[in-house]
């Protein structure tokens, strides 16, 4: 297994640790940040999420630069992204930090695109992510990181930046999903 795929696998393995930090009510301490309170466990979960999200960019860059792109990587990388984003969004809803309806739309889009990729794989076609999908992922990662930090540092100014980014990521999620299906509809149309 090459280094980019190992990095992607490490991202998947960080998800349970991230979930434990966010889901279990550790009574470590908390910080007041503007009008919000940030539990230390949420801060630790946010840092872990940021590290995991950063490996997404690093492994892709490394794979492209050194021509280490593999079918395993094309499968694992989007899977790792989807697992990380879904876990984070669901836990943010549980914490009352994100609207459930946005999470449902984002996760539904991911299931739909994954279904299309599975149909394509059955036909021997590998569908890579497009630029709009990468923009969607970037805005989701930023939104989730800021929401995990309880809107720090924007909470001092009273700007709901995390929520604003989540709405922006929702727009990119819908646009990229429609774009993905329009560009790859032939896979569904021509499947046996």
UniProtKB/TrEMBL annotation:
The keyword Protein biosynthesis does not apply. GO terms for molecular function: CDP-diacylglycerol-glycerol-3-phosphate 3-phosphatidyltransferase activity. This is CDP-diacylglycerol--glycerol-3-phosphate 3-phosphatidyltransferase. It is an enzyme of class 2 (transferase). InterPro entries: CDP-alcohol_PTase-I (IPR050324), CDP-OH_P_trans (IPR000462), CDP-OH_PTrfase_TM_dom (IPR043130), CDP_ALCOHOL_P_TRANSF_CS (IPR048254), Phosphatidylglycerol_P_synth (IPR004570). PANTHER family: CDP-DIACYLGLYCEROL--GLYCEROL-3-PHOSPHATE 3-PHOSPHATIDYLTRANSFERASE 1, CHLOROPLASTIC, CDP-DIACYLGLYCEROL--GLYCEROL-3-PHOSPHATE 3-PHOSPHATIDYLTRANSFERASE-RELATED. It holds the Pfam family CDP-OH_P_transf. Keywords: Lipid biosynthesis, Lipid metabolism, Membrane, Phospholipid biosynthesis, Phospholipid metabolism, Transferase, Transmembrane, Transmembrane helix. The gene is pgsA. The chain crosses the membrane at residues 12-28, 40-62, 83-105, 165-182. The keyword Transmembrane helix applies. The lineage of its organism: Bacteria, Bacillati, Bacillota, Bacilli, Bacillales. Its EC number is 2.7.8.5. It is a multi-pass membrane protein. NCBIfam families: pgsA (TIGR00560). Its main location: membrane. It is found in: Membrane. Belongs to the CDP-alcohol phosphatidyltransferase class-I family. It catalyses: a CDP-1,2-diacyl-sn-glycerol + sn-glycerol 3-phosphate = a 1,2-diacyl-sn-glycero-3-phospho-(1'-sn-glycero-3'-phosphate) + CMP + H(+).
């Amino acid at each position: 297994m090459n280094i980019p795929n190992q990095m992607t696998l490490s991202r998947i393995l960080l998800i349970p640790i991230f979930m434990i930090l966010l889901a279990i009510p550790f009574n470590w301490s908390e910080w007041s940040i503007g009008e919000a309170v940030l539990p230390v466990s949420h801060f630790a979960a946010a840092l872990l999420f940021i590290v995991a999200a950063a490996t997404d960019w690093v492994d892709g860059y490394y794979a492209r630069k050194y021509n280490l792109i593999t079918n395993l990587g094309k499968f694992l990388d989007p899977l790792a992204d989807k697992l990380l984003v879904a876990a984070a969004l669901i836990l943010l809803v549980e914490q009352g930090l994100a609207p459930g309806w946005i999470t449902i739309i984002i996760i539904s889009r991911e299931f739909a695109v994954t279904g299309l990729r599975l149909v394509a794989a059955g036909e021997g076609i590998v569908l890579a992510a497009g630029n709009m999908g990468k923009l969607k992922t970037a805005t989701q990662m930023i939104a989730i990181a800021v929401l995990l930090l309880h809107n720090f540092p924007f909470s001092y100014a009273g700007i709901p930046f995390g929520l604003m980014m989540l709405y922006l990521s929702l727009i990119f999620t819908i646009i990229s999903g429609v774009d993905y299906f329009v560009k790859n509809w032939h896979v569904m149309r021509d499947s046996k």
